[in-house]
Amino acid sequence: MIEPIAWLDRKFTFDQPVGVFPALLERLQGTPDRAASLVAGFSEDELGARTIRGWSVKEHLGHLIDLQPLDEKRLSEFLEHAEILSAADTENRLTENANHGQAPIAEILARLRVGRIELVRKLERLTAEQVAISALHPRLQAPMRLLDWVYFVAEHDDHHLAKARQTILHFRSPMIKETRP
Fold first, then answer.
1. End-to-end CA separation in angstroms for the chain
2. What digits encode the pLDDT tens for the residues 93-111?
3. What is the pTM for the complete model shown?
């Protein structure tokens, strides 16, 4: 199994044309459906269990919910032409303290869906000029357009879906090995 690169080690280039924006919105809107598909058929205990390597499936999905206020804030900052975007908490204290592992997966999925629908609805109303507004990302120390930030959020969603899938595979891999002839 290939280990995903750590999120904080990811490098990005922001050179996509504005015309990719609708596809990025589809990706964001699809995150809750992909998350629901990923967890289907697994027990609350399986989805809430941590591995020695990191968060549980519920924590990965809950983390996306925890970042929704930052997403809203950054969207406002772009539209207000801020020079520098607000920084994220790279220690993820909110997620570490949220106890997502004990929350019902249906609640996590519902909150994720509501947040993504609200964000996408706001983004759908933007003009090409607004999508091209630029600000400095504080951790990357690089300018990014609102378009690039949407790409960044979609990549972050996919990163955590991939990590959640690896957590599921970690728990399921012994059974897979046992059932092979």
1. 21
2. 999 999 999 999 999 999 9
3. 0.92
